[in-house]
Design a protein that fits this description.
It is a single chain. This protein has 64 residues and is an alpha+beta fold. The protein is 27% helix and 19% strand. The chain contains 2 helices and 4 strands. Helix 1 packs across helix 2. The longest helix has 10 residues. The radius of gyration is 11 Å and the shape is globular. It starts with a helix and ends in an 11-residue tail after the last strand. It binds zinc ion. The site of zinc ion (ZN) has 10 residues, from loops.
Length: 64
């Protein structure tokens, strides 16, 4: 499955505003695919879960 499809099928993390909760490999693949527009951040609420976000487009997501 391509990363974008994994993203849309991923469970949502309610603690992080319903962001997609990803495994590290998928998050990394999305960061690479985004050509630097996305960054990955480990979910502070779900051990081993990762989120991707666009720091230039989004606000309010504190890095940990
Ligand atoms: Zn989260």
């Amino acid at each position: 499955m391509i990363p974008a499809m994994k993203y849309s099928h991923a469970p949502r993390c309610r603690a992080c505003g319903c962001r997609a909760l990803l495994v590290r490999d998928t998050a990394e693949a999305l960061v690479i695919e985004s050509l630097g527009r996305l960054e990955m951040v480990e979910c502070p609420h779900s051990r081993g879960g990762w989120h991707v976000w666009a720091p230039k487009l989004e606000t309010g997501y504190a890095r940990t």
